[in-house]
Amino acid sequence: MVLDNFLKNLIYEPVSVLGLFVFYILLINLPLSLGAVFKQKSSFTVRLITILVNLSITLQLLFRWSISGHFPISNLYESLYFLTWGISLGQLLIEREYQSPIISSIAIPIELLTVSFACFILPDDLKSSSNLVPALRSSWLVMHVSVVMLSYAALIIGSLLSAAVLFVNKNKPLQIRSSSTGIGGFKISDYSFNDLVNPIEFSHSEELDTLSYRSILIGFVLLTLGLISGAVWANDAWGTWWSWDPKETWAFISWLFYAAYLHMRISKGWQGRRPALLATTGFLVVLVCYLGVNFLGIGLHSYGWIFG
Q1: Largest CB tally within 10 Å, which of 74, 118, 159, 203?
Q2: How many other C-beta atoms can be found within 10 angstroms of the C-beta atom of residue 6?
Q3: C-alpha distance from residue 99 to each of 12, 53, 71, 91, 261 (Å)
Q4: Arithmetic mean of pLDDT, 34-42
Q5: What is the pLDDT of residues 69-104, one digit of tens each?
Q6: For residues 15 and 60, is the Cβ–Cβ distance under 8 A?
Q7: Which pLDDT score, from 0 to 100, does residue 144 have?
């Protein structure tokens, strides 16, 4: 009976049903991921459920695309699920590099909170599909918004991994010995020739720091592309490259913040937990950029705002 009702609702309201389905399976996955941390062992079940989450959101977005006739990232409801899709995909990719239960235990709560906000907090008018305003009827919609949302996902993952660095092996000194480009803290003078030839055993905090750095670097590149494409689109839609409205301003602040983080890592060779603390603060910057300015109700990006 329950399955019959689920399938019937799936036919008539596939987007909302799949959205609720994602919420419930994340609710199941959360205690499993936390239990894996206490067992100090990566869980195949958690990874399998995360794959199910990602595939379900993919199906949901495809249904919305088919129903609305445009790429499903034009309002806050759609972008929240797209963000969850990006975070879950990033979680799976990172776990391929480093199988640690810590990764799922920090990603899944954010995914659950994001989906909960979309399902139960957003008003109905922001959940339903509607015709695009003239400014959004452009091929730049897919390029700009999707790239920016993926940059948010990568930056959020990187910031959360940095938060984990602050607590994992916190009684041991953290020597940053690796990065995605082989620079940014590797001090050759600190090691003998044998240390350089033989493989180096990295601690959990060092592994997490490396993954955090790589995630933030990818997110920074995507955010840069998003800002450039947004400027081109703004000139095409509104006749100006930059208008300094709240969304644009905070996107630029986010870019400057992570540019400073990368500069400190690459050029200044910051060591210890200072870079992790800076990157952790970046989570709040992204949160304000993505959701915080939506409560102001002013600006050229008002189509995705909660009030106003």
Answers
A1: 159
A2: 13
A3: 39, 19, 34, 10, 26
A4: 87
A5: 878 887 888 999 999 999 999 999 999 888 888 999
A6: yes
A7: 85
- Name the packing angle between helices 14-39 and 76-97 (round to 10°): 30
Burial class (CB in 10 A: 0-12, 13-18, 19+), 86: buried
3-state secondary structure of 170: coil
- The answer on pLDDT for 292 being more than 70 is yes
Q: How far apart are CA 252 and CA 192, in angstroms?
A: 43
d(CA 238, CA 134) in angstroms, rounded, equals 11
Task: Tell me if residue 177 falls in helix, strand or coil.
Answer: coil
Per-residue pLDDT at 304 exceeds 90: no
CA–CA separation, 260 vs 255, rounded Å?
A: 9
CA distance to 19, 20, 85, 186, per residue, from 2 (Å): 17, 14, 26, 57
**Total number of residues shown for the chain:** 308
Per-residue CA distances from 286 to 105, 157, 223, 282 (Å): 20, 11, 11, 6
Output the pTM of the full model: 0.86
Q: Is 166 in contact with 212 (CB distance < 8 Å)?
A: no
Cα distances from 203 to residues 13, 74, 165, 178, in angstroms, run: 48, 42, 10, 11
How many C-beta neighbours within 10 Å does residue 277 have? 13
**258 pLDDT higher than 60:** yes
177: pLDDT strictly greater than 80: no
Of 107, 66, 124, 76, the C-alpha closest to 304 is: 76
d(Cα 54, Cα 179) in Å, to the nearest integer? 28
Cβ atoms of 80 and 45 within 8 Å: the answer is no
Answer whether 174's CB lies under 8 Å from 210's CB: no
Q: Where are the alpha helices (DSSP H) in 128-245?
A: 140-167, 193-197, 204-238
d(CA 74, CA 98): 34
